[in-house]
Amino acid sequence: MQHLASLPDWLGAVWQRLQSMHDQGRLPHAIVLGGSKGLGKRQLAEQLMAGLVCTQAQQGHACEQCKSCLLRHANSHPDIQRLAPEEEGKAILVDPVRKLQPWLSATAQQGGAKVVIIEPANELNVNAANALLKNLEEPGNNTFFILLHDWPKPLLATIKSRCQSQEIGIPDQQLAQQWLAQQHPDANVDELQQVLHMAHGAPLLALQYLQQQAPALRHQSLVDLTAILRNQTSVSGVAESWVKADVKQRLDWWLQWLQDLIKLQQTKQAHLVGNQDVLKLLQAIAKKADIKQVFALHDDLLASLDSLVQRRNINQQLMLEKLLYQWYQLV
Ligand SMILES: [Zn+2]
To answer: Which fold, 213-328?
Structure first.
């Protein structure tokens, strides 16, 4: 852990709320920071934790100089523990929770608080969660649990009911765009708006898209969908290339375009279309497609996205072929 960068503006309100609870001695011992990906939950958790373990914190901000802060910078603070899946996308199992027990019953070594960060808490499996319940109820003196909950995956109700939730909402578009421009000064306004839209308004996710060149992938997905409608490529060929990477992301964009298409068909108002760069294509489809079929594809896309989010065991190639064929049949 390096020195902490200052928190983005949109986290200011929730930070203030946590600090005023802390000042009054009623900071909950188990806090869930919940929100979509890309809103800065981790940054907030790190800053909160840093202030709690620092021995000379001022208004919740770590001093960055005391022994406790230096140990934290070196990733070797004895009073900080982290629970996370061994691999991204896997569950947090019960073993690490059991191993934590002796540490939880010992007193803090550095004079500050003891803090456990659980990220993402929605990946705790049932056994791991059950092993944690008692700790969450009676965390022991000066011990805090900070749980990060990535929406929309649900958090187990048993965990949720033992924590206090702090929700982090999508920031105001202008604020998000300003922040993004500061982080990525090379991007122009159109690019900034586009990635923010793609990220459903989550600035850190938008930044990740900018850095990962998601716009190019999005463009290619659009080229593929257009080619299918024009009979210039095969459904199975596109499915085969899509299945190799970012299926969820592609379906998410596609769903946005369909939602725009529905708006366009129902209202004929071009300015309501969120993805203006796709407008011409959508207008061409809107003229020919039967709205019932558009809705059917929309619902199937949503269901497929849900299966991917829930990581149900599905044949992605078949799933994509079916969806792309429905798309082909729209015009
Ligand atoms: Zn300090």
So the answer is: Zinc Finger, Delta Prime; domain 3 (1.20.272)
Which of 211, 179, 220, 215 shows the shortest CA–CA distance to 195?
215
Sign of CA dihedral 282, 283, 284, 288: positive
- Dist. CA 108 → ligand 1 center (Å): 15
Closest to 40 measured CA to CA, from 70, 79, 3, 10: 10
Distance 164 CA to ligand 1 centre (A): 26
Q: How far is the CA of 146 from the centre of ligand 1 (A)?
A: 19
Euclidean distance between CA atoms 21 and 27, whole angstroms:
5
Pair of tokens at residue 190: 């159109």
Instruction: Give pLDDT tens digits for 16-46.
Output: 999 999 999 999 999 999 999 999 999 999 9
Structural domain spans, the chain: 9-167, 213-328
Tell me the three state secondary structure of residue 256. helix
Query: For 267-319, what is each residue's pLDDT tens digit?
Result: 999 999 988 889 999 999 999 999 999 999 999 999 999 998 887 788 999 99
Q: Kindly give the distance from the C-alpha atom of residue 57 to the centroid of ligand 1, in angstroms, as a whole number.
A: 6
Q: Quick one: CA dihedral 268, 257, 169, 160, positive or negative?
A: positive
Q: Which residues have their alpha-adjacent CB atom under 5 A from ion ligand 1?
A: 54, 56, 62-63, 66, 69
Q: Taking CA 84 as the corner, what is the angle to CA 306 and CA 148, rounded to the nearest 5 degrees?
A: 65
Whose tokens are 């059991």? That residue is 98
Classify domain 9-167 by CATH number.
Answer: 3.40.50.300
Query: Sorting pLDDT into bands at 50, 70 and 90, what band is 1?
Result: very low
CA of 106 to the centre of ligand 1 (A): 21
DSSP, collapsed to helix, strand or coil, labels residue 208 as: helix
